[in-house]
Amino acid sequence: SKIISFFVYTLGAFSSKERFILWINKYSNNFGLSWFRGVIFTMTIALVFYFIINYCGTEQKMFIIDWKFNNFGEVWKGYLKILNILNFSLKIDNISLNAWGETFLFISKIFISYGIYQIISAFRKYSNK
Questions:
Q1: Is 0.90 topped by the overall pTM?
Q2: CA–CA distance, 107 with 55 (Å, rounded to integer)
Q3: Position 1 pLDDT exceeds 50
Q4: Which of 48, 67, 100, 104 is most buried, judged by most C-beta within 10 A?
Q5: DSSP letter string, 60-76
């Protein structure tokens, strides 16, 4: 009960913006202590946005999930294009994005860049020990 009251008091002391920053720092690299968690965070964010863009951001689907994995190579190449923050093309696998797709692609690049930054900062803390 003391732990719960401490968390309620602590979370009440921060604004929602500060709580979001603390939450994302915890899950992106465990406050600078885990570069591996940064890699997982970055790749997961890219995967989530890849699915969102596929189902909400295009008129023609880039891939259809089937359990035969016949088109795994094409899906993997598209995923790597999402993961590449230097790719400024508004097409993925020659499929044009609609307004939602371009918006989600832009937001994904922000979060992926943040994840890469968290990986680098965790490596710097790790190397200083």
A1: no
A2: 16
A3: no
A4: 104
A5: S-S----TT-TTHHHHH
